[in-house]
Hints:
Layout lengths: L1 H24 L1 H29 L18 H37 L3 H44 L3 H19 L1 H12 L5 H34 L1
Helix pairs in contact: 1-3, 2-4, 2-5, 2-6, 3-4, 3-6, 3-7, 4-5, 5-7, 6-7
Amino acid sequence: MAVVDDLVFLQGVGATKQTLRRWNRSPWKVIRPWLLWSAVISVGLLLAVYSVARLSTPDPTGIYIPGLWRHVAPADVGMILFRNSLVLALHGFACVAGFIALNSLPYSATQRSGLSRIIHEKAGPFAMMFVAGATLFSLATQAFFIGGVLATASAQLGLSDSHLLLLLAPHAVVGRTALFLPLAAWLLASRRGHWDQLLAATFVTVAAAVPALLLSVSMEVYLFPELIRMSG
């Protein structure tokens, strides 16, 4: 079994290296559809957030908005980065899971026999069903949570849900688009059957998302409060 595992590992590393070399010749051609689909998902999530906000009852205790009533603390930035990192990690792991379930496992199955082969052949689709369910749960949770926060903040600030969502849009679109890059890569790979590219996609999308997330957090704690003050 150790020999089989080594073969699977080498096959995965080889496919990833080949993919990265090919993408390096024309990186924008690769990243552009990811950005497009990630932006589409982000806008869809914001529309879902607005729908949830319209149906939600504001929390009378209100919420804390970093940078609006007092100076931004390092803990404020750290908490936002932590929450966003969890979402990015989930979507990144979805790419890795797709690579393992529908590329490495089928290849490993060809090197096995008997019950072990059957298990490796059947495990992939079930694993991807679980990943798809976890991703949908994550999106629904984000829509529900952010929608409730939007409703509470709108009531607290005396703004309409649509007005506050418009003020949120600059950093929200940047941040969500960055977070959903791995998900967009996963969706495109699933449509094309390019499961062997997903490990490379994980490296590229996460590396691209990190600076965009830092920009989004900066906009959230410094630009967003100023937009609220200007609207008041």
